[in-house]
Write a structure and sequence with these properties.
Length: 323
């Protein structure tokens, strides 16, 4: 019998039982269990764990853990937690590895959200909502997608899927990444030296960046000022990508026309935060691209089967880059 595979989630997570059940059905030759059901002896046997925003204290109890498979695409907190766990381990233990979820279904869901909320801004939906509140009948001028420049921050799997949706709809699409990419029908920019040039040509800016040391606060007073007056913003990545006070100032001044925010530095967003009541902000409850359990389970099961057969850990996160 293989060693048990614990599923570890945040203490507030109410979906753990459903995950354990789905994973066990997908891997009948494995023993998938909730972390809370493991006794001390079983914890020493675990070499792999499946995680969803796990408690660091739980990870530290798995002394022989070799790798974890996240069922989330974002792993910045997990990177920090596992680095701390690694420092607690005796000398000679191999470096803990993180395998993040790379799921075509997740990319498709995110691309759908990118297109939906880009069209929300493109067709002036916030303005129509304001006019309705005032009982004001006034058609807005129409702009063709070909005359609207949409720029993506981040050209990984999510950015690629989003770019395909946007170009198919007719938008003029640009994209930026830390390293040079080449995508069909997308004007690509790379590195800090080219970011300002892309921002200056942007009508709607969409962030799909992973949160790393380099991307934290990348949208700040200086970079937001590089956007043309009247530009709009969608953040589907992580809250800390944006300097909140700089964003508020840019919206208050009218330099930015509107911001759609799905992620925040602290979640859930507290009731007293300014974003809830700002007339130029649309608040979403981190709903742009939820993990699809069925497809995620299939991917995890495939990776663990390959690991059992060969002993090789699937491609893992570069802990220096953070993704």
């Amino acid at each position: 019998m293989n060693s048990p595979i614990p599923f570890i989630a945040n203490a507030d997570d109410t979906s753990s039982a459903a995950w354990v059940n789905a994973l066990q059905q997908a891997m009948p030759d494995e023993r998938v269990v909730a972390f809370s059901s493991l006794d001390p002896a079983a914890k020493t046997q675990c070499t792999v764990a499946i995680v969803a925003n796990p408690e660091p204290s739980a990870l530290r109890q798995l002394s022989n853990l070799r790798w974890v498979h996240s069922v989330w695409a974002g792993v910045e907190r997990l990177v920090a937690d596992l680095e701390a766990c690694q420092s607690d381990r005796p000398p000679g233990h191999s470096e803990l590895k993180i395998v993040r979820l790379i799921d075509p279904q997740l990319a498709a869901t995110m691309a759908e959200a990118v297109l939906a909320w880009t069209l929300y801004l493109h067709r002036d939906m916030p303005a129509y909502a304001e006019q309705q509140a005032q009982a004001r009948w006034q058609p807005r001028p129409y702009i063709r997608p070909q005359n609207r420049s949409v720029s993506l921050l981040g050209l990984g799997a999510l950015g690629l899927a989003a770019a395909r949706q946007l170009t198919a709809t007719g938008f003029k699409v640009r994209g930026w990444s830390q390293t040079r990419k080449s995508l069909p029908e997308v004007e690509c920019f790379a590195g800090n030296s080219e970011l300002d040039a892309m921002l200056a040509q942007t009508d709607i800016l969409i962030s799909l960046l992973p949160l790393t040391e380099q991307t934290t606060g990348i949208l700040n007073a200086r970079t937001l000022a590089r956007l043309p007056a009247g530009a709009e913003l969608i953040n589907f990545s992580r809250g800390a990508i944006i300097d909140d006070q700089a964003l508020c100032a840019a919206l208050d001044s009218g330099h930015l026309k509107h911001a759609v925010l799905d992620v925040f530095a602290l979640e859930p967003l507290a009731e007293d935060q300014w974003q809830w009541r700002h007339p130029r902000v649309t608040v979403l409850p981190h709903c742009s691209a939820p993990t699809d359990q069925a497809s995620a389970v299939e991917i995890v099961a495939r990776h663990i089967a390959a690991y059992r057969a060969s002993g090789e850990i699937p491609p893992s996160v570069d802990l220096v880059r953070g993704y």
